[in-house]
Write a structure and sequence with these properties.
Radius of gyration: 24 Å
Number of helices: 20
Distance between the termini: 72 Å
Largest sheet: 2 strands, antiparallel
Shape: globular
């Protein structure tokens, strides 16, 4: 095997080993302003940034390798699937790893501007978060998806509380408790599915679930619905989204920006499990069984509700971080609308829109903190305050982000929504889909325009203009980089759209996925589960 064949392993090992190395280096503890502590923090920043840049390079190589339709499979320990652990990367997995890198690089650059010194071990925890995210996107096994979920969630607990504060601790407690409940449900769903199929390998599940009948199919369907609750919670789908606005608004800006990719782990899991394993015609065996499409009646209406609730929350927000957090919910709803349509064209539209929305939301969180730093006591509250120190730069950045988030042409938010509306034309729910997607875009624009007018136009002359806080090249460069990436998605809309379309088509090719993971002779894979032998019949009574 060549170096490129090991890329699925390297994107997980790199942040893991970097985190361990950073723990040995240390970050100065509470003495970051002392000579020795400051020196260690400088080295931690260099190692962490270098590792994340290398991670981005590996992600780019993954995309290039997967672009031709190749499916990279690494069987850990050379155990054949489905009996061993398999790491699998197709176009979708490579795209998600690359999107993680696109968010991680500018966010970490921003954090090194001072946020990483507000508490201990920021950089090792950041790397463990990357490890969990990358692992979730490359694993080919449902149980290992749970394992990587827990890795990234444990890291997110610490990052969310980094810097401390009463409000942050209160929101963090809710976040931890709800995620523990979701993790317990995840294990229940996985256990039910394993009991009926004897496997948790995603490729193997896609072959077996459609063949279940009777009580086995009913239990597998129940397991699918339990997993829908879990993934819906991770993705912040209504009514499971109430935790997100308070949590994202309470944490620091770079952490909230990184968390913009966390909801996409739930979206990705919904596509993998409910789009493929429980999808229509899943597998290459007989006709679709009764367990298929377990979540189809639920995803689309809940996605439309998520859009509506998200924009209503944004309109009612009184601070900029909470507004952006509610827009995160609304954007997830738009992505899930495409997932709920269950067609390759709709999935391609969702993937394209997801790239833009993730980058824009992350950029808005960083922009919000820079604006708040220049408004004195008004901070991030949506109320008249002193003039910001850099009205032109920050105003133009706000305008660009708002236009892209709302879906105005020619930005990628508009292109993604247009693709989604076209994909819904022949669907029975075409009217509510068009109404909600267009209405959510209009109301998002209203909410962001209201926020922008208050922040930049409703200036109190009785208050002195603030200094240019947060005006360092590092902080503003990170924010501008995220917004520039959204523009790049529009400039290169053709290649990106072709890639997402190919990823959606490949995602629906269960037979090819099964051959890549299980081998060419996939039909001979023996199950782990065997039915109990029938009890011997009683001997006949003598006549």
């Amino acid at each position: 095997m060549s170096f490129l064949d090991h890329l699925p392993v390297l994107v997980v090992l790199l942040p893991a080993l970097t985190a361990v190395a950073l723990l040995f280096i240390g970050d100065g503890g509470g003495d970051v302003h002392g000579g020795h502590g400051h020196h260690r923090l400088k080295w931690a920043r260099r190692v962490s940034l270098g590792s994340v840049l290398l991670f981005a390079l590996l992600a780019a190589l993954l995309v290039a390798r997967a672009a031709d339709g190749s499916i990279l499979v690494v069987r850990v320990g050379e155990w054949p699937a489905p009996f061993g652990i398999a790491l699998v990367v197709d176009r979708l997995g490579a795209l998600m790893v690359a999107l993680t890198a696109a968010v991680a690089v500018p966010v970490l650059l921003y954090a090194t501007g001072g946020w990483d010194s507000h508490g201990r071990h920021f950089h090792p925890i950041f790397q463990f978060q990357l490890m969990g995210l990358a692992g979730a996107f490359v694993t080919g096994d449902l149980f290992n998806l749970f394992v990587f979920f827990e890795v990234l969630l444990i890291a997110s607990y610490v990052l969310m509380l980094h810097g401390q504060g009463r409000e942050r601790f209160k929101a963090g407690m809710h976040y931890v408790v709800l995620n523990l409940v979701a993790s317990a449900l995840f294990l229940i769903g996985v256990s039910l599915l394993y009991a009926q199929t004897g496997t948790l390998n995603l490729a193997d599940l896609a072959l077996r679930v459609p063949q279940l009948q009777g009580d086995d199919a009913a239990i597998a369907q129940a397991a699918g619905l339990v997993l829908l609750v879990v993934f819906g919670f991770k993705a912040a789908m209504v009514p499971l989204a109430v935790w997100l606005p308070g949590t994202y608004a309470a944490t620091s800006a770079p952490v909230a920006a990184l968390f913009a990719i966390m909801t996409k782990v739930g979206v990705y899991s919904l596509l993998r499990v409910h789009g493929v394993v429980f999808g229509d015609g899943a597998g290459s065996g007989p006709a679709t069984g009764p367990a298929a499409m377990a979540a189809e009646p639920w995803i689309l209406p809940l996605a439309l509700a998520t859009c509506g609730v998200g924009v209503m929350g944004a309109l009612a927000s009184r601070t900029l971080p909470r507004l952006v957090a509610w827009l995160t919910v609304a954007s997830v709803g738009t992505v899930l609308v495409g997932v709920g349509l269950f067609t390759p064209a709709a999935w391609a539209a969702s993937l394209y829109y997801m790239i833009n929305s993730t980058l824009v939301i992350a950029g808005l969180f960083l922009l919000g903190e820079i604006v708040a730093a220049q408004r004195g006591n008004a901070a991030d509250h949506l109320e008249p305050g002193p003039a910001v120190g850099q009205p032109v730069l920050l105003g133009l950045a706000m305008l660009l982000a708002a236009a892209s988030a709302a879906g105005l042409p020619p930005l990628p938010g508009f292109i993604g929504k247009l693709m989604l509306l076209e994909a819904a034309v022949l669907h029975p729910w075409v009217v509510p889909v068009w109404a909600v997607v267009l209405g959510a875009g209009f109301l998002s624009l209203v909410g962001l325009a209201r926020a922008g007018s208050i922040l930049f136009w409703q200036v109190r002359d009785d208050l002195p203009a603030c200094t240019v806080s947060g005006g360092s090249l590092r902080l503003q460069g990170a924010m501008v980089l995220l917004l520039a990436l959204t523009v790049a998605v529009s400039v290169f809309a053709g290649p990106v759209q072709r890639y997402t379309a190919a990823a959606a088509v490949q995602l629906g090719d269960r037979a090819a996925y099964g051959r890549a993971v299980l081998g060419d002779n996939v039909q001979t894979t023996r199950p782990y589960r065997f039915d109990a032998p029938a009890a011997p019949s009683a001997p006949e009574a003598p006549r």
